[in-house]
């Protein structure tokens, strides 16, 4: 009969619908494959089946910014993480009004010769004691120098409570950066600068000199820097005013090398003088 549909004609609408659904499915799969992965913290059932991204995701680019060095030395503070500043960054600005440096002086010592006469010799004053009330430091100051490789020496491990003044740096109170270092720990326990990392902008440091003068410094900033990228210019660079640098170790202790990976550096400026 003319009005009767063939089997193909009856099946055609179903085939068209199935084809349309298949096409939609293909498009959805294609769109999902282009979407960035979302890390929900779950453990994948089959890690090898997860596609490897060929370009960084926006999350990856954002995280990379966390490793950019700070443009200035941080102020420090309790529970504040210490981070290094860029190598070209200047020392932190003073936290207290500046005081004019003490003019360099020498002391003339007279002694009796073997023949009963007298002789005079000039000697330079030196720092003899340092106190830091914030971290309960009250320690004698010795002298240290550099070895043949130019590495700054440190006080003997047998005297962990002693600090060392770099004898070729300015005398504390005179113009320029004076350097005093000390151990953070020994095999027997904490050493003189064990709590140095707790200092923060505004804390006070006093240095007593052999000529009777007492100079007080105010902390302006503190940082922790890798020994492989030590801020030499910032620590040892010339300065018109009287400045102080305290240095100790920090970071991770390398058992094989018997040393720490980083240095902690405290920056301070002269804020008071007496004597």
Automatic annotation (TrEMBL):
The family database entries (SUPFAM superfamilies) matched by this protein are listed as: Sortase (SSF63817)
Matching CDD domains: Sortase_F
Gene3D superfamilies given in the database record: Sortase
The entry's protein name is LPXTG-site transpeptidase (Sortase) family protein
A Pfam family for this UniProt protein? Answer: Sortase
Extract one GO molecular function annotation from the record: hydrolase activity
Q: Which UniProt keywords apply?
A: Hydrolase, Membrane, Transmembrane, Transmembrane helix
Protein species of origin: Nonomuraea maritima
Region Disordered, as annotated, extends over: 39-60
TM helices/strands, residue ranges: 12-35
Q: What InterPro entries does the database record attribute to this sequence?
A: Sortase, Sortase_dom-sf, Sortase_F
């Amino acid at each position: 009969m003319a009005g009767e549909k063939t089997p193909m004609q009856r099946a055609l609408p179903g085939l068209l619908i199935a084809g349309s659904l298949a096409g939609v499915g293909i498009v959805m799969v294609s769109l999902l494959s282009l979407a960035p992965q979302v890390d929900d913290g779950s453990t994948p059932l089959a890690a090898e089946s997860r596609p490897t991204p060929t370009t960084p995701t926006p999350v990856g680019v954002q995280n990379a910014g966390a490793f950019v060095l700070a443009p200035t030395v941080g102020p420090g503070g309790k529970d504040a993480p210490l981070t290094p500043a860029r190598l070209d960054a200047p020392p932190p600005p003073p936290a207290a009004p500046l005081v004019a440096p003490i003019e360099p002086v020498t002391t003339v010592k007279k002694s009796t010769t073997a023949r009963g006469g007298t002789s005079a010799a000039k000697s330079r004053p030196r720092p003899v004691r340092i106190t830091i009330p914030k971290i309960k430091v009250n320690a004698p100051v010795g002298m240290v120098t550099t070895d043949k490789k130019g590495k700054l020496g440190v006080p003997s491990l047998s005297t962990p409570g002693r600090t060392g003044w770099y004898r070729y740096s300015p005398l504390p109170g005179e113009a320029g950066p004076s350097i005093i270092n000390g151990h953070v720990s020994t095999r027997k326990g904490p050493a003189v600068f064990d709590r140095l990392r707790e200092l923060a902008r505004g804390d006070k440091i006093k240095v007593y000199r052999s000529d009777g003068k007492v100079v007080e410094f105010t902390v302006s900033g503190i940082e922790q820097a890798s020994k492989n990228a030590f801020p030499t210019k910032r620590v040892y660079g010339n300065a018109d005013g009287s400045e102080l640098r305290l240095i100790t170790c920090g970071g991770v202790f390398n058992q094989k090398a018997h040393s720490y990976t980083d240095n902690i550096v405290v920056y301070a400026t002269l804020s008071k003088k007496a004597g």
